[in-house]
Design goal:
Arc Repressor Mutant, subunit A; 71% helix
């Protein structure tokens, strides 16, 4: 593959991969580091990419595997909630954040209580903006499985909100 072709893939998919990782780890610095690692690994494994799936799906699968590897290196007693979360330099002012905090915290709490694979499928669809076909490919399942799982996750979140 020509370097300019990889550069166009990088430009097209960087945001998707970064936001997907950010949705998993909730740490801007870690998401940036893992995104860079994802593209570095993809560049080294480019000859193995058969083109059976969308490059974004392939990159998100690499990103997910790198994130899982990262978690395995952490202390076994450390939970995802214990991972440091750096402040975003482009975040809105504190007054605006305070107004949004209650609604977001409720959503985050409900997402946290959501079991797998519902949580990950929901995040891939909403934050990762992946299609059901792409999500199905990541899990080695069908497009229909991804669609049903996503809608069940939404239903569980709505039921939890109405409690």
């Amino acid at each position: 593959m020509h370097p300019s072709m990889f550069e166009s893939i990088y430009k097209a998919y960087f945001g998707r991969v970064y936001h997907y990782l950010l949705s998993l780890c909730r740490d801007h610095h870690l998401a940036e580091e893992l995104t860079a690692d994802t593209f570095f690994k993809a560049l080294n494994k480019l000859q193995e990419f058969r083109g059976d799936s969308d490059p974004g799906t392939w990159l998100c699968a690499i990103a997910r595997n790198l994130y899982v590897s990262h978690l395995r290196k952490q202390q076994p007693t450390q939970s995802l909630e214990d991972l440091p979360c750096a402040p975003d330099p482009g975040a809105p002012d504190p007054a605006t954040l305070a107004e949004q905090q209650d609604g977001l915290m409720g959503l985050y709490a409900r997402l946290h209580r959501l079991s797998e694979p519902y949580k990950e499928v929901f995040l891939l669809r909403v934050l990762g903006q992946l299609s059901f076909r792409q999500i199905g490919q990541l899990f080695g399942k069908t497009e229909n499985w991804a669609c049903v799982t996503y809608h069940r996750a939404r239903k569980k979140l709505q039921e939890e909100e109405n409690k």
